[in-house]
Amino acid sequence: MNAIKLRNNAKGIFEDHPTSENKTKYNKLRNFCKNVVCRAKKEYYFSNFDTVNTTSIWRTYDKLMGKDVRATHNIPNLLVDGRVISNDQDKSEILSSAFILEDDNTIDYKLQVLDEFKGQNNDSLAIVDQSDVHIAFSKVQSRCSMGDKIPSKVLVNTMQSLLLPLSILFSSIFHSGEYPCNFKNIFVLPLYKGKGLLSDPNSYRPIASVPTLSKILDYILKWKVKSFVDKSNVLDDNQHGFRSKRSCETALLSL
Question: pLDDT band at residue 62, thresholds of 50, 70 and 90?
Answer without folding.
Answer: low
